Structure prediction request, 370 residues.
Amino acid sequence: PEAITVQELANRMAERGGEVVKTLMKLGVMATINQTIDADTAELVVSEFGHNVQRVSDEDIEMGLQGTADTESALRPRPPVVTVMGHVDHGKTSLLDALRSTDIVAGEAGGITQHIGAYQIVVEGGSKITFIDTPGHAAFTEMRARGADVTDLVILVVAADDGIKDQTVEAINHAKAAGVPIVVAINKVDKPEADPQRVMTELLQYELVPEAMGGDIICVPVSAISREGIDDLVESLLLQAELLEFKANPDRNASGVVVEARLEQGRGSVATVLIQRGTLRVGDIFVTGSESGRVRALLNDRGDKVEQAGPSEPVEVLGLNGTPEAGDDFVVVEDDARAREVADFRAEKKRRSQLASATSGRGSLEQMMD
Ligand code: GDP
Ligand code: MG
Prediction:
């Protein structure tokens, strides 16, 4: 059981320490200001003062939210989650489009696609790959800044006619800092002035040694326009994923990360959630950032209603009480009371830190991607 010092309890209630000592004496407990009392006694004191008993520490409130760790035997392979990064105009958007069109399922449906900030493709042979395509790369930079690493692999796009530029270097640094493996897509090889060899040589300066030069960095020459090399790129991603053995337990309450969230007319708050473990189902109660809710509907990246979503699946969630932020966690909890407790606590904490930072001034997050 939790213990707390008399002084700390007094601080949390904004009461004088001496008053707390006196109240304890009334309850038959002799304790000085620096001594600890147990949680039950503390609760009694709090109600004596006429305050509501509340769990107040981060540890208390967040404890157990993510549940227990998964045993090795519960883990199942899951698709890799891939983010495309690189310098502006080097072809990130075009490459994501080219990759998306390798989806054999969307191909059949005529390629009708929704933009929800992430999508999953199924390639020949049945393997799946999830791509994060949030504009502004909130997916990577913001989420990382907020401690949520969602990406398993980074495709570093470098235009073969332009070489490594500022934002390429930033992307390399971000990937390295996050410990995320890089696969290099040397793009625009259809252009007459393309020089893939130069790109590979430039990579050496950043300690990325291409396989062709004896290292372990896969470099794939591609053209997002002519589609040359796209299948090779997909194969390389699957190869990397196989080597790294990405796994998760699908048989537990879902948890994941918000990739995008917005307030939509007629639909209310909508969030795209990347499920990281467990399986999310319609009806589940959840907390996300300082919001909570109950899943009213789930939609996949084609806009189809689905009943559930498992590890590495991006899914649009309806039924939120408010709009969370990209990078917020998303955790299924046992009941409404627990969801509200966590959400309220976090909202209060956020309010306080906003008050605190309002005076100190705060730098804006670097915008490295378009
Ligand atoms: P982003 O800023 O990194 O998202 O780059 P875009 O995908 O918007 O591409 C920037 C420009 O490069 C556009 O005019 C694209 O048509 C062009 N582009 C992208 N990929 C290729 C390619 O493989 N070959 C050629 N020739 N042009 C490309
Ligand atoms: Mg773009």
